[in-house]
Amino acid sequence: MKVRIGEGATDEEASAIASALAEHVGSEVEVFVGDETEPTVTWDDPGEPLEDDLGPTEREELLWEEIEEIELGGPEKYKERLSEKGKLFVRDRLDLWFGEEGIKFEDGRFAEFDADDQLPADGLLTGAATFEDRDLHFMANDFTVKAGSMAAKGVEKFLRMQQRALQNGKPVLYLMDSSGGRIDQQSGFFANREGIGKYYYNHSMLSGRVPQICVLYGPCIAGAAYTPVFADFTIMVENMSAMAIASPRMVQMVTGEDISMQDLGGAHMHAAESGSADLVARDEEHARELVADLITYLPDKAHEKPPRSEPKAPKLSPDGIDEVIPSSPNRAYDMTDLIERVVDSDSYFELRPEFGGEIITAFARIDGRPVGIVANQPAQRSGAIFPDAAEKAAEFIWKCDAFEIPLLYLCDTPGFMAGSGVEKDAILEKGKKMIYATSSSTVPKISVVVRKAYGAGIYAMSGPAYDPQSVIALPSGEIGIMGPEAAINAVYANKLNDIEDPEERAQREQELREEYREDIDVHRMASEMVIDDIVPPSTLREELVQRYDFYAGLEKDLPDKKHGTIL
């Protein structure tokens, strides 16, 4: 390396420059002063090489000891109580989910490190990890630290994690095992602008931005119980999980009711009665398996397409579809038998199976493409739409639309249920939500009239008026205000009663029934262009493959407005 410096520099200055540069670049340096043609100084000794066998200092070793102490969590006696309940210590839980190399980094590990009573990580872990080859944010409560309760530092970590998820658009996994906020420290986090209340503001902002998945491992009470219900998908572990607005002791104080935690807010109560649990896992390992399946249907964030998989043939042959469907519109059958003849093998993934069973909500794949299925279930109360089923369907449709998952409606329903009981349970309000969700969705929608499509059922199931990309029917389909028996009773009851001869009356009733059936038959609907086509049942899967492929790039806009008024 050659360097020229200003005229008038001394030999000592030239030597100092040459020495410094040689040590920096590790090679010979020639220094020329002014206009001289020969170098004033040549320096070819770059100095002693840097040592390459240096190890951690005492300072670093001390830091490692501090980290190891933090990662031990709370007192050993609390860890023993976890094993008695069949639960994992939080860091063992993270190993189960992510493996030894899966955690990319942890934030806030030293929270409350200087506290007098040293609360490791303040009982709440946050960071980033790789799960099933997908990057995501995570949080996990450490129940050995004050029962996983939340206070100022843990709240700060939780909020930072949520806000970063908003910015970088990656899914969030909540591993909840918290008794709620620390009452004795509430002034530091409860009502603050950046306190625990901000959790639910951030949940609301994240909703539809990235998938939020929550798994419950213990009783989550009060504020802690809102994270599971704000999440897009909630998994509870049987005989372990629970969530409620107040503990059994508080319930007894307020209402006098004596009730166990499981009866108040256990996994099966929320799966079957409140609908707040999407899935119930047998144990911790099963919970991980369920989420591993679930995430394969979801994109990382809004406006991305969900991941496709290698196509698989259906589990059951499509050739049997027509035989599955009874010729009588009132005979029961299991809709999953038809679904398994349409979707890829082993791709059927039902959500909330114990709640609102008259409608099936499930993810599946058709030719490797994720779809959301909304299907009437004739095996449950003839597939009539009850309030719980309508609300379940509305929420599922809304989530599919948020994450760009095409919708498949399989219609076989006598319509919305009637009666004083369902009116008290808000059938009109909840039915409205289902129709609103169907109306407002912008993903490709295909509606299949499998058998009966009576009353407003055809509206809720994305019938012709609801801007579907296709309405197709099987030859067993019927579309009408009501079924033949109900229609004849409503319109012709008096005329039939005037016929005194029983045989004549029965014959006339049969004639009216056949005339009515011709009027609502899908062949007439196809002839009048009410529906797009009638397809041979054995070709239904291929028909769906072609139509979803064709409409994959669909662009559909909603009217320009701030938002609708229906929740």
Please indicate the percent range of residues in DSSP E strands (runs of 2 or more).
Answer: 15-25%
Rounded to the nearest angstrom, the radius of gyration is 33 Å
Number of helices: 21
**Shape field:** elongated
Mind explaining what this structure looks like?
- The structure is a single chain.
- By secondary structure, the protein is an alpha/beta fold.
- It contains 21 helices and 20 strands.
- The strands form 4 sheets. Strands 13, 14, 15, 16, 17, 18, 19 and 20 form an 8-stranded mixed sheet that branches. A 7-stranded mixed sheet has the order 4-5-6-7-8-10-12, with helices on both faces.
- Helix 14 (387-402) runs parallel beside helix 16 and helix 18 (484-497) packs antiparallel against helix 19.
- The radius of gyration is 33 Å and the shape is elongated.
- The termini are far apart.
List keywords for this structure.
single chain, 567 residues, alpha/beta, eight-stranded mixed sheet, 21 helices, 20 strands, 37% helix, 18% strand
